[in-house]
Structure formats: C-alpha cells, structure tokens
Amino acid sequence: MLWDDEPLPEVPADILARVGQGTDSGDIGDCERSALQRVIAINQRLYRRAWELERKVEELEAHGQAMREQIVGLVQLTRRLGYEPSTKQPR
Predict the structure, then answer these.
(1) What span, in angstroms and rounded, lies between the C-alpha atoms of 25 and 20?
(2) CA 64 to chain centre
(3) Which CA distances in Å does 29 have to 4, 37, 50, 90?
(4) What residue segments make up the domains of the chain, in order of their start?
(5) How far apart, in whole angstroms, are the C-alpha atoms of residue 64 and residue 36?
(6) Which residues form a coiled coil (predicted)?
(7) Which residues contact 10 (CB under 8 A, 6 or more apart)?
(8) Which of 9, 18, 26, 83 is the least crowded, having the fewest Cβ atoms under 10 Å away?
(9) What is the structure's pLDDT at 60?
(10) How many CA atoms does the CB half-sphere of 56 hold within 13 Å?
C-alpha cells in the first residue's frame, strides 16, 4: 500500500456538526462529542505520521540503491586497474 497514492482523510464537517447537534454545554453528550473529536484528531495524526514514515522509507531505499551502484562502480574500477577488492572485514 502506497500512502502517497491516497489523499489524507479529512473529517467531514457534517459529521462534526451532527455530533454537535442536540447537545448543549451542560449535557453529558459533550464528553462523548469531545472524545470523538479527540479520537478523530489522533487518527489523523497517526495517519499523517505513517505517511511521513513511508516517504522516509522510500527515500532511504533510493539512497541505498544509489550507494550500491556506486560501490559496484568502484569495485569494477579497481578490477580494471588491476587490483582485487579486499574481503577483509573493516576494523
């Protein structure tokens, strides 16, 4: 699933308006309404963070691929110059 293919979900205003209808500031329903709004806000933040992390993973994969290509090029260059690349572990 590619996060960037989907637009970020927005809470429709009619849902929030429907939640707010029929309650006044002294009603017990206010607790439920504010809880719903908090849950929606948390869900949006989590979705946005997941999207950001997906973008970072894609970026790091691209950088990793570029580094692999550079290493292959350097190994080929050293072989053309007559050197054999070392397999010794770095310290």
Answers:
(1) 10
(2) 18
(3) 36, 12, 31, 65
(4) 10-80
(5) 42
(6) 43-70
(7) 44
(8) 26
(9) 94
(10) 6
Chain center to CA of 32: 30
- Separation between Cα atoms, residue 14 and residue 9, nearest integer Å: 14
Residue with token string 């607790």: 31
| Other residues' Cβ atoms within 10 Å of the Cβ of residue 87 | 5
CA 21/CA 30 separation, integer angstroms:
10
- pLDDT of 58-72, one tens digit each? 999 999 999 999 999
CB 54 within 8 A of CB 4: yes
- Burial (CB count within 10 angstroms: exposed 0-12, middle 13-18, buried 19+), residue 16: middle
